[in-house]
Design a protein that fits this description.
The protein is of the alpha/beta class. Helix content is about 40%, strand content about 15%.
């Protein structure tokens, strides 16, 4: 794996010699003593239970009564940055928190690239970083590392017009990208079910899957129902199912708010299409969930089992993940079905997160 190179076309870095290991390292703002003190305590709590980092971080910030309303986002950004860059920070100090403060005060040092520079830049396992480097090429791979180091945008899907929002936003068709932070619970368009939170690339998965108005669709791993709601808004007759009752209850609440009909219940009969938005590593949504780095799993057996179940319910299956690994995507799809078409949506392609989507038909096995 090459470690450093000249990037001829990457905006902002033209003609510069780029250090790969530090390419995604920002210079964070210097925190106030109070923010630093609270963040250190939360960091210790997160490291004690890394598999629960996401909910623990949110809960700890809510309960940090010594922080003001403007300090909580600063502490949150500091902690998320630590998670995103933990492996790169280890080059500066054995304690990532101390290294992060050093970056804030001194900037990024100019250190030579080690052999595993890109893995360090992304804070990912060596084999996964090598796969991305090979698939994307140096320039796009480096751009991806930079993109994953930032905050994911809040994007909405328009379910019903008209939509008025109190913050600057960009609308492209049914997708709205917010350009400022806002409490959506206070926004009438959200409370009235005119918009729903849904990533732009997740919306593209829905558009690839939509089989036509009036078609009967099963969302087999529906979760809280973002894709179910989008399919229903397009005119499909949607049934949603998931093994998590709490997620289905949230789906029903969201459907009621949006005025959309989504049937909830276990699969029965045949469907025009089954959408399998399978459990996965979550490597495509590291901007939104950087803590996924601390709990990487590759549930290939579960993914293949879900596809086999889907083919018992429909001749047409759409398989999707928010992962960016060949082992979870192309190899699973090709093992269980005939791939009609497939697409990987990278975070460097537009404003969305990373997704894979494939339209499959049932594999025909030769007669023995």
């Amino acid at each position: 794996m090459r470690a450093s190179f000249t990037v001829p076309g990457l905006s902002g870095w033209i003609g510069r010699r780029v250090r790969v290991w530090s390419s995604a390292l920002p210079r964070p703002p210097v925190p106030s003593p109070r923010v630093e003190r609270v963040a250190r305590a939360i960091w210790a709590e997160l490291r004690a239970a890394p598999h629960e980092a996401g909910p623990r971080l949110a809960a700890a910030l809510r309960s940090a009564r010594t922080l003001g309303s403007k300090e909580r986002p600063v502490a949150g950004d500091l902690l998320l940055g630590l998670i995103r860059h933990e492996r790169a920070l280890a080059r500066l100090d054995p304690d990532p928190f101390t290294a992060w403060l050093r970056l804030a005060r001194e900037g990024v040092p100019d250190l030579e690239d080690p052999p595993d520079a890109y893995a360090i830049a992304t804070s990912l396992p060596d084999w996964l970083a090598a796969e991305w480097w090979e698939r994307l090429g140096p320039e796009a791979a480096l751009a991806l590392a930079v993109r994953l180091a930032g905050r994911a945008p809040v994007q909405l899907r328009v379910l019903r017009d008209p939509v008025e929002l109190p913050v600057p936003h960009l609308r492209e068709g049914a997708t709205i990208t917010l350009q400022a932070r806002v409490n959506l619970d206070l926004v009438p368009a959200y409370r009235e079910g005119r918009v729903e939170v849904q990533d732009a690339h997740s919306q593209r998965v829905v558009e690839r899957a939509f089989p036509g108005e009036g078609a009967r669709v099963l969302d087999l791993c529906a979760g809280a129902g973002g894709k179910s709601l989008a399919l229903a808004a397009l005119g499909a007759r949607v049934q949603a199912w998931d093994t998590r009752p709490r997620a289905l209850a949230e789906l029903q609440r969201r459907a009621g708010r949006a005025g959309l009909r989504v049937e909830v219940g276990p699969p029965r009969g045949r469907y025009d299409l089954v959408l399998v938005d399978a459990p996965c590593s979550g490597t495509g949504v590291l901007r939104r969930h950087p803590e996924n780095r601390w709990k990487l799993v590759w549930p290939v057996d579960v993914q293949r089992r879900l596809l086999r179940s889907a083919f018992q319910l429909s001749d047409r299956v759409v398989y999707a993940t928010c992962a960016l690994t060949l082992r979870e995507n192309e190899r699973v799809a090709e093992a269980e079905g005939e791939v009609v078409r497939s697409e990987t949506l990278w975070p460097v392609d537009g404003g969305g997160e990373g997704f894979f989507v494939a339209e499959l038909t049932q594999k025909v096995h030769p007669q023995g």
